[in-house]
Known about the structure:
four-stranded antiparallel beta sheet, binds flavin-adenine dinucleotide, alpha+beta, Butyryl-Coa Dehydrogenase, subunit A, domain 1
Amino acid sequence: MQPFYNEQQTMLATTVREFATEKLAPRAELVDDKAEFPIDQFRGLAELGLTGMTIPEEYGGSGGEYRDFMVVLEEVAAACGSTSTVLITHVSLGSQTIRHGGSEEQLKRWLPSLASGEKIAAFALTEPGTGSDALALETSLTRDGDDYVLNGSKLFITNGAEADIFSVFTNHDKSAGHRGVTAVVIEKGTPGFTINPQHGKMGMKGCATAELVFDNCRIPVSNRLGEEGEGYKLALKILDSSRIMIAAQCLGLAKGALDAALSYSKQRVTFGKVIATRQAIQFMLADMAVELDAARLLTWRAAALYDEGLAHGKESAMAKLYASEAAGRIASKALQIHGGVGYFKPSAVERIYRDQRVTEIYEGTSEIQRLVISRSLIGDL
Length: 381
Ligand SMILES: Cc1cc2nc3c(=O)[nH]c(=O)nc-3n(C[C@H](O)[C@H](O)[C@H](O)COP(=O)(O)OP(=O)(O)OC[C@H]3O[C@@H](n4cnc5c(N)ncnc54)[C@H](O)[C@@H]3O)c2cc1C
């Protein structure tokens, strides 16, 4: 527990840690091995009210701030990386896009079933031709009376193969730059909407990644989030805040690796002594703990700025950049401390090492975070 948690956050961390230890950690290896979507684990999180966190109670959510959700994610990710990716995508990407982009009628229509965990959310921005450059979206949105018609495809969509409600970013006017991007909600089962599961990921294998294909997919205009042309701003706003939750996920992955390394170093005997007595091992553990705390403080600052309604774009990029790369270094050291055992399944560090890697890629690569930070420092040239 962290000394800066308030009483409620300490209780929350204890509850989630107990759940994670009992229900998530024992199944993490299976989720990874079989690339199995952790649906029972998701339902368990829902029973605890965690699928509705940060969503206001009037829309069926359990409320709470980003700092509270950060506390939750660290505990979930320490036990099972895939489950934490599913939860982040559901809450801070999919549901929050509707919360921030939707009208009162839309919030009432979609948020309660998402907050309760009855339905699962996804967020679809990336396309085969564009990830970092979100302005180059090709998925077209054409008005036809009271409907829109969508054509195009989305790639690498987390929760995609299991989700019910998709926030999808489209282009209604390619000549209009960022004013051409419009967000809509598409429900599973809509004619012309096909979901193709994607296989072969290196890590985070349980998070049901999918390609989404829209072939003359018709939706009512009432499924549009905000006005035409407001989608780009909405996507950036959601990514700015959700990155803080990826940083929180990295804290959990790093904590899982550090805990495993600590425990192993106190058991493994070489040359007549446990390896925790060796300074080479002790210094690795010390460096891992320092990096984890530094990442946690950067993440806490970004979450606090968000909760206070203050500018947080640079700070959330800093938290995501540092926490993801620190988690990589920590996972690598943890694996080194395990020696050969760490290189083989079913060691937790082998899984964490693979799970961590994508945190430097999704929701903006490390290079894109550096771009956001440096632009904020330098300003327009
Ligand atoms: C497991 C997984 C889950 C994902 N989940 C989702 C999801 O749920 N929803 C969603 O919409 N997307 C999702 N993504 C997509 C993810 O956000 C993108 O892969 C990511 O933004 C990078 O885009 P890209 O793959 O097209 O790489 P590219 O944009 O093609 O980048 C390739 C390389 O070039 C670098 N680069 C690009 N532009 C610049 C620049 N201007 N300056 C310097 N370097 C640059 C990048 O950093 C990278 O190293 C997921 C991806 C993965 C792997």
